[in-house]
Amino acid sequence: MDGPVFLTAPAGLAPAAAGRHGAAPWSLLCDRDGTVIENRSDYVRTPAHIRFLPGAVRALARATEAGVPIVLVTNQSPIGRGLLSLGDVVSLNRLVTDALSAQGVRIAGTYLCPHAPADRCSCRKPEPGMVRAAMDRFGLDPSRTALVGDSVDDVLAARRAGVQGVMVRTGRGAQHAVRLAALPEAAGTPVVADLAAAVERLGQIFHAAGDRSPAASAFRQETRRAEA
Ligand SMILES: [Mg+2]
Ligand SMILES: [Zn+2]
What is the distance in A from the centroid of ligand 1 to the CA of 149? Predict the structure, then answer.
């Protein structure tokens, strides 16, 4: 397995349907473990390990309603470490996307990196390979795309791919926010409570960016000052 693995969700958008931001206000690349479902230090390995974080499903349903294409982007090193087969991880991810679909969430697809860190691949976050692959496949505009995750590696992958990164404090986020604060490369990255707060913040960021009126740019400058 050289590159990342792409999985279409059962109710996935055809690539063209999400493409070129026709009607999409912005696009959401979303980490899975620690952001949508609970993170486990020994990995999500069985169906019983799949536990949705509070508010995460509703947040994704709201993004779906707003016409935001959603792509899951997940490091799955248990495959590379020999703990799970690719088939195991595909089945587990299918349970996640089926459950989301049943709650009104449309997932356009999932990118997963099956490699272990020692493989030195170009898809495992913090490398930007999966983000770039998702943007290519769905024709996403980097200036209107965000990657939300609970790890410094999510933020760095976003930065390296040229999209907006947002860190959530769920999962490993509370610890990683401390590491993030010490990284000059990640300066200015919003850190928010959870996925619901991230979706809300991104709606504001991209709404303001889409409004070219003088009032909007003044607002952006003030926001930037307030966050600085
Ligand atoms: Mg994570
Ligand atoms: Zn990889």
Answer: 6
